[in-house]
Amino acid sequence: MQEIADRVGVSKYAVSKALSGKSGISAVTRSKIFEMASQLGYMNQKSAKKTVSSKQADEEEHQIVGILIPNIRSQNQESGYWGKVLDGISKSLEAKGLGSVLISDDSPRNFNLVMKPEGLMGIIGVGLIATPMLVELRNKAIPFILVDHEDELLECDSIFMNNYDIIRKLVKFLLGKGHTRIQFIGELGYSRSFIDRWSGFRSVMDESRLDYVPSEGLLKVKPTLDAHNLNLLQASLKELEASRFPTAFVCANDQIALLAMSALQQLGKQVPEQCSLTGFDNNLEILGETPIITTVNAEKEALGIKAVDLLQWRLENSHMPFEKVLLQSDLIIRESVGDPVNQ
């Protein structure tokens, strides 16, 4: 700890408070401490394996799995996306005769006040989870699996849809239809899945040697309904009218696709007559009972089921390297993609 303190320029006491999830440390300082701790190997894979191994002897005594899903960014049971992930987890745990407890607060302090950590055989984290909470789980030797999230400061097991490959397939489909002026919509820092989808999109555009210049504004659009976000989307699309308007938009998820369709209509652009549009997730809660948007079918329940299998495998194979599991998905072609016009 002293080396971390020396490099960051804080006291050893401050490092201890940060790594244990205690308050009294600014967010900026805490972030610097976590980053330096990761660089110096304080939270490396070797130490993680040891902590997991220490729990293995008690595995039979603990039959409760914690499902950690912080109630932020629509991460809850009512969500058409996350709710189905939770369904998959619950069904799989029940089939294996394991109990579960839902945890909606990722504050280390509140976790320790309410939970009895030694009574958990493991944690399945769903969606975005704060780094301090993950550090707390690692410090308490609680094995955990992350669904649709990973933290670059901590090595751990995780599970995602294969975002990169399926977006490559989607963009190649658009190119095959004759589209060459294509833009990506979605904030890259919103989630790891958004980054992977952007990377897949960009790789095909680069390989095709298209004259592609990304819209900085469109790469900041979030899947939210707040006024600032909607104004940003509208303004960014309007800026594109000054040049040759795109004939297709690849959106980071279905919510953004619906927002983009509405914004395009306000600009007098009809989908698919004047431009094509795609989403991701096949979230029927958002798309409605008669969806028209071409999208990617994210197997949401399968993510949850596989997470339980991965946790069970981890408990039985604590000596093995951490795994990142990718589930394959399919394109769902609907009416929102047509032939390009005015190329």
From TrEMBL:
Keywords: DNA-binding, Repressor, Transcription, Transcription regulation
Any GO molecular function: transcription cis-regulatory region binding
Segments forming domain HTH lacI-type: 1-53
Superkingdom to which the source organism belongs: Bacteria
Pfam family, one: LacI
Keyword Transmembrane: no
Name of the protein this chain belongs to: HTH lacI-type domain-containing protein
Taxonomic source organism: Paenibacillus sp. BIHB 4019
